[in-house]
Design goal:
The structure holds 2 protein chains of 2 kinds.
Chain A (H helix, E strand, L loop, with lengths): L1 H29 L9 H22 L4 H14 L1 H31 L8 H23 L4 H15 L20 H25 L12 H17 L16 E2 L3 H4 L2 H6 L2 H21 L10 E2 L9 H5 L5 E5 L8 E5 L9 H5 L15 E2 L5 H13 L7 E6 L13 E6 L7 H8 L6 E6 L10 H9 L16 E5 L5 H16 L28
Parallel strand pairs in A: 6-7, 6-8, 8-9
Antiparallel strand pairs in A: 2-5, 3-4
Chain B lengths: L2 H22 L5 E2 L5 E10 L8 E2 L2 H6 L8 E2 L7 E7 L2 E8 L10 E10 L1 E10 L8 E9 L4 E7 L7 E5 L1
Parallel strand pairs in B: 2-10
Antiparallel strand pairs in B: 2-7, 3-4, 5-6, 5-8, 8-9, 10-11
Classes of the chains: A alpha/beta, B alpha+beta.
Amino acid sequence: MGKAHDLHHKMSNYLRKFWQRPENLFNAPFGQALNPWYHLGALTFFLFWVVLVSGVYLYIFYRTGVREAYQTVEDLTHEQWYAGGVMRSVHRYASDAIVLTMSLHMLRNFASGRFHSYRWFSWVTGVLLIWLVYASGINGYWLVWDRLSQFLAVATAEWFDWLPLFSQPLARNFLAPGDVSDRFIMLLSFAHITIPLVLLLFMWIHTKRMNHAETTPPLPLVVGTLLALLVLSLIKPAVSHEPADLTLAPNVLNLDWFYLALYPLLYASSPGAVWALVGGITLLLLAIPWVFKPRAAIPVAEVHLDNCNGCERCFRDCPYSAIVMQPRQDGRPYALQPVVDPNLCASCGICVGACPSSMPFRSSDFVSGMELPHQELAALRTETDRALAALQGDARVMVFGCDCAYDVRELKSEGVGALSFPCIGMLPPAFVDYALRDARADGVLVTGCREGDCQYRLGIRWTEQRIAREREPHLRKRVPLERIECCWAGAHDADLARSGLAALRARIKQMPRETIPQDGAQEDVPEPEDKKMGQSL
Amino acid sequence: MNKPLMYLGQGLAYAMFAAVLGYFSTSPKYTHLPADSALVKLSFTHAGQRKGACRERTDEEMAKLPTNMRIRKDCPRERSNVTVELEMDGKQLYHVVLPPTGLSKDGVASLYRRLPVPAGTHRFVARLKDKEGGDFDFVRDETVLLTAGRVMVIDFKADAPGAGGFMFRN
């Protein structure tokens, strides 16, 4: 397992570097927030709804008969090209796009190491979704009942006949024209409703362990994707082959390679070989979370009930629903207490950043209500103190960074101190206040993964909202926002991080130092008394 | 990057997305069957003859059986293999020995085989044997014109109306 993990680590480094090229390319025109590479899962969800809506329209006109099936699709395509034809094409292209975005989503998560430990459930259900997407798509192609449908029906039957499951070959059902009945077409259309419904169920299950799962892409991406599908549908409408005729063998076919790439392999090799390939790939994908498991177990966040009043912020902010609230058991006068599920905890520390008792102003041996055992806040405060004490010059900046993003230690200099958290979401807003208090720093730079690409999904979102005072625990009002710069720079975005730092330093040089809160503002610093905890800081 | 350039870049990205979808949704073309070929599908289900002969039970044997199982004829369950061969223009195209299905080997033997052949006129001879030893029980010899892309189905029904045996459906 350890060797496999090392292999994956090396592989993922290459993959990440390879992956970052198109991502960087897209960052320029789209910006980080709208980069489609950061919304592949949500785009897949959106495309599913496009397929569903266009499919419902097509189904209104579709008639389930051997001849009627082909004829109604032809009528939709040619007689009603402006509506039915466009809908058919959008239905086709959105289905193809699902395969594209789904595959990229999976590859990207593999390259980013987002598949093991607490993420195994999403990975495994994602693998099952691949089968369901393919079953839905291939089933849809049968409904046209043209030469391609005929080829797929016969080839699928021949493929399944390799399995020792049927007393008679399935392919015998497609020997002659009379073998296919209207009821068969009806069965196909029924399957084309049932399988996508099962797919939808699994899509819901797929995101079940994700708190605040992103299933809707940003509006500009929705509009852009829809426009691209519409324009493509008008330029190159989806059309049928000749009607199915079982007395003739399909000759040259315009295959949809997104869904049907395996079919030529059936005849180039054998049905058994294709089963081995498909089964092998499925098993390999299913095994990935355990084969490439990290060597060391992930440390689990700890609850310290002495400093917890059950305010539920950690519960609300946890990206992986690893925290549940249960009846209080320590006898203190609060209704609930958080309990961490070690199997789901990502050790990101976002719960630590959410805890109102994560206050560096407190006594020297302070402990927060939530702590990461390997990154205790008291130790992080000591490191912050050390970094602040070493700052010199006239534009002194404390940088708070993220282990998953650009390495902030590379920014260190005479006037710049740096401290990295497992995720920027672990940064309690009070640490920003702490750094600026008593003019120990003139500004604070907050960095993390690229916007929309947070390794722990919600770290950037929560941090931005806490600093903007839109989410508890929010940054105190006394802290001037113009002395804070948020710069989302990925692991290889040195230029971005440096330019963010330079912009902040240039800005604070123009500002008088006295605007920084001075010592003596201690009166609004709450101590972790039970009654005060859980209120807004 | 200024706004017009950003929109241009986005337009290019969407165009690329659409181009990939548009191309691979129908291209490259796949040739399933070469233009000068036809297809023969040899397929049937048929139960081979019983391996042993049936015999009549004696009255004593009948009396020992429960009332609902008193059938005079006693037949062995196991059936013979079914041997099939197909010859085209004097050359063997396909030969197979199909065992009976089922744990007791008493089920039917099934076959589905697709055989691409050059288009044109061919003489086909189909033979089938469904018993132990001896010659083929069923033989059909037919000359057929197979145009390009045509599918000819060779089915078999031992008890079909008429003589029974192979049916060439072209």
